[in-house]
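Quick one - inputs below.
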Amino acid sequence: MPLSEFEVIRRYFMEATAVREDILLGVGDDAALLRTGSTESLALCMDTMVAGVHFPDDAPPETIGYKALAVNLSDLAAMGARPAWALLALTVPNVEEGWLVAFSAGFYRLARMHDVALVGGDTTRGPLAVTINAAGWVDEGLALRRSGARPGDGIYVTGTLGDAALGLRLWRSGQGDVDEHARQLVERLHRPVPRVRMGRAVLGIASAAIDISDCLCADLGHILKQSGVGAVIESGRLPLSAAMLAKCRGGEARHLALTGGDDYELCLTAAPAVEAALVSVAATSDVPLTRIGRIEAQPGLRILAIDGRPLSLDRFGFDHFGSGAP
Ligand code: ADP
Ligand code: MG
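Output:
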């Protein structure tokens, strides 16, 4: 069986060849944290998007430029970091000025919103792919790590889940423009909103965080593994958008919310003692925050159906969430 992405990283790219004192956090979180000598540390992340793999071949170029930066800012948001700079490696099959005008407009639109400066990169010819390396600042002791969840903590998510996965389905079947709901779902796919402000607002409140890029089950799984805990999710609490509910039944919607990727919402954990603080932070931001479950000492991820009965994880293809894994 071919190695999974995570097994490749674990086997080949986690060797601490140069253990430097300025590394606060290396491979394994949403971003690395490097000591700078000031009270703030540098958060560094990188994400690649390949045509036909991470975005549809026919995605509008403006959305490719936007999303390539958005997914990186989402990783910084998951650390509670304040974005500052980006490097852009762009591989294009040929120089098409119209495409570049739209691509760069999408990139800069989001960059301006977050005061991010493009300070370098690389431009090459080849199959369309975009790699961005983003960097930002976060208070050294406060950064949100995947490893801080403790039994009893609540599990929270921002926004709504599953929309991007449904948006992709609609886009692929040529139904992305059939009505307002479809357009909203496709918008969620093409222009995810990195939750930068929320990530910063919960510094010192949340115990752990990750951004939901693969899907809630897999990404919460990283928090569980790195915190050495387990969790229960009540699927009846999953936040679903009106557009999603207009397009599919509740069961299908919850399935998409658990297993669909590309939403770039934040999944946070927080101790019961700070729940009031978390709710008040959420109330002052314009992003909904929903408690969907709790952290438990027993390893593994347990999902409850709306009637409270356990759902079989195999049904979701997540048998690797059995005890001790992933
Ligand atoms: P995310 O989805 O948050 O971007 P990934 O799942 O892509 O995170 O990566 C998990 C961790 O592994 C991150 O800390 C990332 O920096 C690191 N990583 C991924 N690929 C490599 C690689 N080839 N070499 C070193 N570290 C890597
Ligand atoms: Mg991430």
